[in-house]
Amino acid sequence: MCGLSSISMSAAEVARLGGREQARAEVWTGGLCHPCADAVERAGAMGPTAVERAYLSSGYARGSGGVVALRRRIEDGELTVRPWSASGASSSATPWAHMAAEVARLDEAERQRLRDPFESSVRAE
Ligand SMILES: [Zn+2]
Asked: What is the pTM of this model?
């Protein structure tokens, strides 16, 4: 869901887990990294709630106002959390990288409104 492409692990850690295959099975659950797999399990099934939960609890959900503001944007329908697989973006070494541009766009739109409230109130008429 988050688009994470790989998880780095020391050779010693791989050896401790019993080799490459075992290490892979240890860090990926059905193609999901552990935080995403945990979110799916807590949500009961794969779906929008699991995706939102995984994103908001990832530590990579950033924007002006932080997680609280992102949660409000999701509730207001302003922000849609898409799983990486539905985003068309390349996988990344950073979880949820595909959401960063979307959040940056919303932040910029908000800055624009705050900078010039008169202009946006005129546009809204
Ligand atoms: Zn993930």
From this structure: 0.78
